[in-house]
Design goal:
Strand content: 15-25%
Structural class: alpha+beta
Number of strands: 6
C-alpha cells in the first residue's frame, strides 16, 4: 500500500467524527489541525513538527520543500488539496485543506461543526476556492 493510500484509509475512518477533538483551535479554523491529527495517526508523526501553529500557509511552505511530499498535477485518493491562507487574489483571509477521496470527493473539516466530512468535490473546491475566492489550488502526494 502506498503512503497516499495509507493516508486515505485513515482519513476515511474519521468521516462523521471530530478529527481534532482536543480543539487546539476553534472548529472554524481546524482544517490543518484535522489533517495533522489524521497524518499523525497514519504515520506516527506530524507534517510540521514541532506541532504548534496550525496554518494552511505554514503547511504549504513545509510541504513544498519536504522530502516526503511532492507537488502533483492530477490528484489521486490520499493526496492533499490545499488553498493556502494569504494567497487569495480577492483578499479572503482563510484558505482550506483537505484529502482527496474516491469519486473526486474531498474530505475536510467542516468549519461550522468541526466534523470531518466529504463536503466538496474537486469541481466544487475549484469553483469556491479558486474562482469565487481567488485562491490557488495545489495538490501534494506523500512519497
Amino acid at each position: 500500500m502506498t503512503k497516499s493510500e495509507l493516508l486515505f484509509t485513515e482519513a476515511i475512518k474519521w468521516l462523521g467524527k471530530d478529527a481534532s477533538p482536543k480543539d487546539k483551535v476553534t472548529d472554524d479554523l481546524a482544517c490543518v489541525d484535522s489533517i495533522e491529527q489524521i497524518h499523525h495517526r497514519a504515520f506516527g508523526e506530524y507534517i510540521c513538527p514541532p506541532y504548534g501553529e496550525v496554518s494552511t500557509l505554514r503547511l504549504y511552505d513545509k510541504l513544498k520543500v519536504h522530502a516526503g511530499w511532492r507537488i502533483i498535477q492530477t490528484p489521486t485518493p490520499g493526496a492533499l488539496i490545499l488553498s493556502p491562507s494569504g494567497m487569495s487574489s480577492k483578499n479572503y483571509k482563510h484558505g482550506h485543506i483537505g484529502i482527496v477521496g474516491l469519486g473526486n470527493m474531498i474530505m475536510s473539516n467542516d468549519s461550522r461543526s468541526g466534523i470531518w466530512i466529504e463536503g466538496y468535490s474537486l469541481q466544487s473546491w475549484h469553483h469556491v476556492f479558486e474562482k469565487q475566492m481567488g485562491f490557488p489550488v495545489f495538490y501534494f502526494e506523500k512519497i
